[in-house]
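My current task is to audit a protein record that another person submitted. I have pasted the whole thing underneath without changing anything:
***
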Amino acid sequence: MNKIFFVILVLSLYAKFSYAQKSIIRNDARFLFRPLLFVDYNLYHWYKPPSLTNSVNAGQIFNVLPGIGGGFILGKKTTLLFCVEATIKYHPFSLDLDGYQGMGSIAFPVLANFRIPLDGFFFMQIGGGLQWTHINLHQRTSSQLSNLNTFFITCIAEIAAGVEEHLFLMYFLRFGYHPQGSVTFDFGLKFGLNGSLWE
């Protein structure tokens, strides 16, 4: 009888120990994978393609159309988060006030970011990537119609800060540069959804 009781006790302790170990492993390894959807609204942007002169550029304040973006985010809200995102942004009234050459621009930034949780719901975000940009999309001047006007690329860095809980809102500052002389600058806000990161 004592042997049976002892065997039952040992098996019971082993089962509890195994369950505890599995729970610890699950809790430690449970980095949450969430889709990321957002709108990207530029409060101001300024784009300069690579050129031999400094006269070609385009900018706009308070874009009438928000950009649309998506990606994924990996991690938990209490730890360092990693996210990859891509956006399409169209600025219909982007132009150069000093010397009109055309109107409109489009940009495709692709970023990998680290999101750092701060106190409470606040966070900051730092990252970088590449941006493809095209300016003077339509209503170009007759003198510019014969000039090559294509996409140009910049290496971009972004810093942002905001709040989140299921939904998130952040202000961002993004700067891009390429050795051939192209420059991009964006300042605005993002509003989106990434699901709960508290589980």
About this structure: Helices lie at 2-29.
